[in-house]
Design goal:
Layout (H helix, E strand, L loop, with lengths): L30 H15 L2 H21 L25 H8 L5 H9 L7 H5 L1
């Protein structure tokens, strides 16, 4: 994001080499505006969680570089987090869980599923 180069996607992300970025550029007074435009463009390409994670990583690195005395300014000031879409997942109702237990599956699958719920005798006894 800081270099203006597109980040690799898909399988190309694994093992990708990070771009070279001279830290002195961060103190450039024009960088905050450029960085805001790059962040907005990145938000159009990726989901909000990805953009927010990348922004958080950049902010942490910038804070560390400032504490080291390597840079003075923070070009991410003024760039807001993107609103994440609401979580629309729902927990299963009790009757749905009961229906799952009635399925004809091997004992191992039933037992491993019960360990993730709250059995009356506790998870330690269940998973032991």
């Amino acid at each position: 994001m800081l270099t203006g180069e597109p980040a690799p996607t898909g399988p190309a992300r694994r093992g990708a080499k990070p771009p070279v970025f001279p830290l002195a550029v961060i103190d450039d007074p024009a960088l905050p505006e450029v960085l805001a435009e790059l962040a907005a463009a990145r938000a159009d390409e990726m989901d909000a969680d990805t953009v927010n994670r990348e922004l958080s990583i950049a902010r942490k690195a910038i804070g560390w570089w400032q504490r080291q005395g390597w840079i003075e300014s923070d070009p991410t000031i003024g760039i807001g987090r993107r609103p994440a879409p609401p979580d629309r997942t729902k927990a299963l109702a009790e009757n749905q869980i009961a229906a799952l237990w009635r399925l004809d599956v091997a004992l191992r699958e039933r037992r491993s599923g019960r360990c993730s719920t709250s059995p009356p005798h506790g998870p330690t006894r269940c998973c032991a």
